[in-house]
Write a structure and sequence with these properties.
alpha/beta, Rossmann fold, Arc Repressor Mutant, subunit A, 2 domains, five-stranded parallel beta sheet, three-stranded antiparallel beta sheet, 42% helix
Length: 233
């Protein structure tokens, strides 16, 4: 069975004709789809499943909870889920590509359903490659249920905030995340914190990793930009 037989795509779109067209093309390419047309139904639907979908196609403009809010919630709760934002608002593109919302890609309306399939395939391929790269590079594992990070089987003793920071960085190995992006994932209530607070948490996280791996630097600073998780070769 190929990976396309098992990849599940959640289509969050309030225009039924667009949603049906996209679903038809995705299903014709071997994906399984589910459609939701109201923002308030998205998080409960994901929570009710044993596993989240591999990819969410998320419209920005939705009744109920809007796409911007949903993208932040999805990234915080399920950082490994791939996200493609659908937007008719071109002025939002810079924000999407800046990934302050955690989107993996964006598609502007009107679009070709063939383009959606191509973008979905590319994003899922990158997502699988990133997950495959993380595991063998460094024996570091996360237990999302217990909020425990293990390095060589040893509990790092992370706080909830440190665990969140490590999890979101591990989701995108090699990708630079700004302090603002990391702040979005630190607290579930989205409280306002300073960049110094981010630096302080990163410093403590690095120290705990260094206690187990003193010669490895897997969280690296990018001067003037932010931080990235860089598994060693």
């Amino acid at each position: 069975m190929s990976h396309l037989d098992t990849d599940h795509v959640l289509i969050v779109e309030d225009e039924p004709k667009i949603a049906r067209l996209v679903a038809d093309y995705l299903e014709g390419s071997g994906y399984t789809t589910h459609h939701i047309d109201h923002g308030d139904e998205v998080l409960p639907w994901i929570e009710a499943r044993d596993q989240p979908p591999e990819l969410i196609l998320l419209d920005l403009m939705l009744p109920g909870t809007d796409g911007l809010t949903l993208s932040r919630e999805v990234r915080q709760r399920w950082p490994h889920v791939a996200l493609i934002m659908l937007t008719a608002r071109v002025e939002e593109v810079d924000r999407l590509l800046g990934l302050e919302l955690g989107a993996d890609d964006y598609i502007c309306k009107p679009f070709s359903p063939r383009e959606v399939v191509a973008r979905a395939r590319a994003v899922l391929r990158r997502s699988r490659a990133a997950k495959a790269d993380v595991a063998p590079s460094v024996p570091l594992s996360l237990d999302d249920d217990g909020w425990v990070a293990l390095a060589d089987g040893q509990d790092l003793g992370l706080t909830a905030v440190e665990f969140q920071l490590l999890r979101v960085m591990m989701h995108s190995p090699g990708r630079i995340l700004s302090r603002e992006q990391l702040m979005d994932h630190m607290y579930r209530d989205h409280r306002i914190v300073s960049e110094r607070t981010v630096d302080s948490h990163i410093k403590k996280l690095r120290r705990k990793i260094a206690d187990v791996w003193p010669e490895r630097e897997i969280i690296r600073s990018v001067y003037g930009v932010g931080y990235k998780y860089q598994p060693e070769e």
